[in-house]
Design brief:
The complex is a heterodimer.
Chain A lengths: L6 H4 L10 H26 L5 H9 L1 H29 L3 H30 L3
Chain B lengths: L18 H32 L1 H12 L1 H28 L6 H28 L4
Classes of the chains: A mainly alpha, B mainly alpha.
């Protein structure tokens, strides 16, 4: 009979292959998104219209631009974390899972990068 | 030790359909919907940075019948995911696990999401933005 801890047999056996950091990041980003998303939504609602010049003027205000960048960063990160869990749970074939995970990472980095760049371009008057 | 198949959790179909699992599934579905919405938000921001012409093209896409259906879906998904997400955060700190609390908070999330979605769209409507 072996007296070695059975721990080594379960470590890394979960579908995520790692510990609690992913879970924790998901919760923290969700908490940050409560004020950020509500701020964004109600700011747009309170604008006199959704015309081009109105929104551009609003987003060129430093605080709007700053919070918009924070919003898209945290939102994209949270969306990436969440969709990753979905793939881990339902895609079981290793190669296909890898393809999904890599695609999601590329997609959300692309999407987040484009969003940040767009807000900065408006904020700095490009 | 002989190799045995790893134990599986009970299959989904043996569960009785009830509010708990329905809302859990809905949380995940709305999460996926909102992830797609994040891509739409990126598209909107890029169009906004691109200038008046590209913004108008994006605006027209969002104001089309299909665009409005998507926006309506995203708004409900957002409010539901928000309220039910807060419910999950309360669970994470160990609060609200009793049967009655679970049911009440669940219905609160659903009814609250419907109410907020309607309020949001009526604000848009009355503001003359539609």
């Amino acid at each position: 009979m072996s007296l070695r801890s059975p721990l080594r047999r379960v470590l890394g056996s979960g579908s995520a292959k790692d510990g609690t950091s992913h879970w924790w990041a998901e919760r923290l980003s969700s908490v940050a998104l409560i004020p950020l998303t509500l701020w964004f939504l109600f700011s747009l609602l309170l604008l006199p219209s959704l015309e081009f010049s109105v929104i551009r003027t609003w987003m060129a205000v430093p605080m709007s631009g700053f919070l918009s960048v924070l919003l898209v960063v945290v939102l994209t990160y949270h969306a990436y974390l969440g969709t990753t869990v979905v793939v881990e749970d339902y895609v079981h074939e290793h190669g296909l899972k890898l393809l999904w995970m890599v695609s999601l990472r590329f997609l959300f980095v692309l999407c987040g990068g484009a969003s940040i760049f767009s807000v900065l371009r408006i904020a700095f008057g490009g | 030790m002989p190799a045995r198949p790893r134990p599986l959790s009970p299959h989904l179909e043996i569960y009785r359909w009830q509010i708990g699992n329905t809302l859990s599934i809905l949380h995940r579905v709305t999460g996926i919907v909102l992830a797609l919405g994040t891509l739409a938000l990126a598209f909107w921001l890029v169009s906004l940075a691109g200038g008046e012409g590209t913004y108008r093209t994006a605006y027209r896409a969002f104001a089309s019948p299909l665009g409005l259906v998507c926006l309506a879906g995203w708004s409900f998904a957002f409010f539901y995911h928000l309220l039910n997400g807060v419910r999950h955060l309360f669970w994470d700190v160990g609060w609200g696990f009793e049967r009655r609390q679970r049911r009440l908070s669940g219905w609160f999330a659903v009814i609250g999401a419907v109410a907020l979605t309607l309020a949001f769209w009526s604000l848009l409507w009355h503001g003359g933005r539609l």
